Amino acid sequence: MEVQTPASPSGFIDQLVVPGDMVLDLTTLSNQTIKLGGGLRQDGDAISVIKAGKLRFSKPNKYWVESSQKRYVPCVEDTVLGIVVDCKADNFLIDIKGPTLAFLPVLAFEGGTRRNIPKFEVGALLYVRVVKANVGVNPELSCTDASGKAAEFGPLKDGYMFETSTGLSRMLLSSPPFPVLEALGKKLSFEIAVGLNGRVWVNASSPSTIILVSNAIMNSESLSGVQQKIMVEKLLQRVQ
């Protein structure tokens, strides 16, 4: 969802907000396009909260409410990990932990044509982008970025997938790097894909590394940055 207005600072950013809070007044802002993510809605010139959590802002122009929950509410441009549950002539049906199944058109791939439709088994794990997320309609997905390139999107093979809260997923994707990932990256070599829908995929050359990284991430949500680094050191000592 896009609204004509501003990316000016708000006293609510990084603060707890609850449904009914008005966090932005569009009449006080200069003309600029901003993007509204999950937990916010526009009523006339007011941007208000519809889900409790912390109001977040990312440059240049996106606002959303971040909360730790198991249920995922799809938003346009979210990157998510989806599981193929059915294959139709025109679409793959994908479980993204949302209220309804999403669909991935068979042509929503780089260079996609009827002659080179990809084949996926039921249960396959895909890294995809949400391109449509309207209320009352199944979300639509794509395996390309906004320019039509495959980029990092597509099937994730091997490795291990586990579920987290949506809040932890956002923290894992934050910048600067989340402390647990920074500490693990200094000592271990591994691949990771994080979906904003509360799914994480980890792969490495050895099963022990996959297990260690997965356990460290799952245990990190309630820990401070210092505690996360101490936890990683203790886990590494056990496997040495």
How would you describe this structure in keywords?
five-stranded mixed β-sheet, alpha+beta, 240 residues, single chain, 18% helix, disordered N terminus, 4 helices
Give an overview in words.
With 240 residues, the protein is of the alpha+beta class. It is built from 4 helices and 17 strands. Strands 9, 10, 11, 12, 13 and 14 form a 6-stranded antiparallel β-sheet that branches. A 5-stranded mixed β-sheet has the order 1-4-8-7-2, covered by helices on one side. The radius of gyration is 19 Å and the shape is flat.
Q: Rounded to an integer, what's the Rg over CA atoms? A: 19 Å
* Percentage of residues in DSSP E strands: 25-35%
Give the ordered list of helices and strands: EEEEEEEEEEEEEEEHHEEHH
Low-pLDDT segments, ≥5 res: 1-9
Count every beta strand, where a strand is a DSSP E run of 2 or more residues: 17
